[in-house]
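Our working data are protein records whose layout never changes between entries. Getting from the letters to the tokens is the skill we practise here. To make this concrete, we reproduce a full record directly below:
***
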Amino acid sequence: MAGKTFLGLLYAQLNVTGVVEVPEGNGSGVVWDGNGHIVTNYHVVGNALSRNPSPGQVVARVNILASEGVQKNFEAKLIGADRSKDLAVLKVEASGDLLKPIKVGKSAVLRVGQQCLAIGNPFGFDHTLTVGVISGLDRDIFSQAGVTIGGGIQTDAAINPGNSGGPLLDSRGNMIGINTAIFTQTGTSAGVGFAIPSSTVLKIVPQLIQFGKAVRAGLNVEIAPDLVANQLNVRNGVLVLQVAGNSLAAKAGLLPTNRGFAGNIVLGDVIVAIDEKPIKNKAELFKILDDYNIGDKVILKIQRGSEILELPLVLEETSF
């Protein structure tokens, strides 16, 4: 089973970034379907993607371990990538007998203490399997794009640089997550690893295959970074900086931040809740919007000056 889903993705350099580490380097991945689509982390092929390749360009070399133990190498072309969710889809031209798609489990039914297995390529030691338990659920993983990936799975199965992009499996061999980060002060596993839940993978990957990007529901407004909002004395909620001119948000009357005649800053609307779900910062806004689809109707609670207003709005594909 393990040999059918393991891949070695060979581009990028190790990049130690801090206590919570999302390292680039030799990585892993999973066979998604019989068409040759390969799912891995965005950051595994981050160096190649930073050169702005277009879909269809070769961005990695993939080793597929066949069931008889023979490794075969393939060039992998980019199909789609989503930096904010740290996911990428590649494609190899491999025969059907080599492509054994992963079975995807349900991350929503996981329980703390449940056994799990991580497959990967730690430090270049390929075909490695480690065993542990689910040690935490609904953790926030901060992606390289500065966006929070909600619902993260925490595990004590040993995850090290090279495991990134590989599957986290339940005891039945179903993929419940994609290993993506470790908590470390030394650059190696400290018994706390994180995986993107399969529910997120199932939502994003089909979009990457079909459109080459994630099609995300949003407000089509630019939100001020938390630091900027705090400097402008916005302590609760998110400050609207810009509103796309043709957006539904503009038609609904959401106001952007502007400068007055004297050059002073006139604050735009501050979004403090969506459908009664409170929002304290930018990360919480994106986390809440992840649960919605394009076309969904929501009620924004906004602060406009000293007033608190409710604004009905239809979500659309966001350009911000």
Remarks:
- The radius of gyration is 21 Å.
